[in-house]
Design goal:
This protein is mainly alpha-helical. The chain has one domain. Helices cover 75% and strands 0% of the residues. It is built from seven helices and no strands. It is elongated, with a radius of gyration of 19 Å. The chain starts with a helix and ends in a 7-residue tail after the last helix. The mean pLDDT is 93.
Length: 177
């Protein structure tokens, strides 16, 4: 099967599985898993991309969590938010000095996903619970990167294999891409 069709089948199948799991078994936001999935590929894929993506995403999560705690500690004013987010933004770039976290967009993905998780869940950053936004975002990023890893492996497998049922469904379109 062509790489194009292998990737189409892999992403379609696993995207459905991810959506089903996050709607039924895993209390994490599906949109964060998809961001992490994209981050995996943006960081180069494979084992190295998986590690770089997860560590970069988690770095952004930690920085966002600290910024959000700082905003709360300083009263939540627009000035407090500006100072804390500005400091957090600078910290994100400082962390790119290390090779393992040297892809700034992946750090930003973690930061933004944490802020979004806080907004979506309504959970406070100061409450200790298994539903803490930091833990939810971190778990979702790990799950998303895992889906990226599996989708890459499945794409490679399908590219190397000839699966009659899939090829029959694709019919004459196989040669187009």
């Amino acid at each position: 099967m062509s790489k194009y069709w292998s990737l189409t089948v892999s992403i379609g199948l696993l995207g459905g599985i991810d959506t089903y799991l996050t709607a039924t078994l895993l209390p994490i936001p599906v949109w964060v898993t998809f961001i992490a999935w994209a981050s995996f590929f943006a960081c180069g894929g494979g084992s190295a991309g998986f590690i770089k993506s997860v560590l970069s995403n988690w770095t952004g999560i930690v920085i966002a969590s600290l910024a959000l705690l700082g905003i709360g500690a300083f009263g939540g004013s627009p000035l407090a938010a500006a100072i804390c987010v500005g400091t957090g933004s600078a910290c994100m770039i400082l962390m790119t000095r290390f090779q393992i976290t040297s892809f700034p967009p992946a750090i930003v993905f973690g930061f933004a996903s944490t802020v979004g998780t806080v907004a979506a869940t309504g959970q406070s950053m100061t409450v200790i619970s298994p539903h803490h936004p930091t833990l939810i975002a971190a778990a979702a990023m790990l799950v998303g990167a895992s889906f990226g890893y599996v989708s890459e492996a499945l794409t490679e497998f399908l590219t190397k294999k000839s699966i009659p049922a899939v090829q029959a469904m694709l019919g004459a379109t196989e040669g187009t891409n």
